Amino acid sequence: VLKDTLEKRGALGQIKARIRAEVFNALDDQSEPRPPLSHENLLINELIREYLEYNKYKYTASVLTAESGQPEVPLDRQFLAKELNIVEDANGKSVPLLYGIVSHFLHGGKEESTQNTLPKVSLLNYPKQNLGKPPTERNQK
């Protein structure tokens, strides 16, 4: 009865939001210094953040940013692709870079290459309409 009453008044949602905020604040303990963020970790975290934000995992992305010491402002995608030597096609720019990397190693990683670049067709295996769905609802290949 108490839960229903709080819900009807709109207070339950506010209480839940406040608890989440306090949990995130507790996780982001500023008194404990973070180790310096290496270049590799910065790039990996940015790939993960782009993936999380694309899939609308906003709370998870905010915790990653807070815990890792990642800059609040995301790195520019073109900069990230250049740092990782990724060659993108027009279709690839609509999905996170991480999908292309995974696709490359699932479908094209066996081919010999003298460059450390992803093939331009690497993201064609992941149509846009398929990526927004939960993994259980995606077309399996």
Automatic annotation (TrEMBL):
Its main location: cytoplasm. Belongs to the CEP43 family. The keyword Cytoplasm applies. The lineage of its organism: Eukaryota, Metazoa, Chordata, Craniata, Vertebrata. Gene3D superfamilies: 1.20.960.40. GO terms for biological process: cilium assembly; microtubule anchoring. GO terms for cellular component: centriolar satellite; ciliary basal body; motile cilium. The gene is Fopnl. The keyword Cytoplasm applies. It comes from the Eukaryota. Residues 34-104 form the FGFR1 oncogene partner (FOP) N-terminal dimerisation domain. It is found in: Cytoplasm, Cytoskeleton, Cilium basal body; Cytoplasm, Cytoskeleton, Microtubule organizing center, Centrosome, Centriolar satellite; Cytoplasmic granule. It comes from Fregata magnificens. Keywords: Cell projection, Cilium biogenesis/degradation, Cytoplasm, Cytoskeleton. This is Centrosomal protein 20. Involved in the biogenesis of cilia. Required for the recruitment of PLK1 to centrosomes and S phase progression.
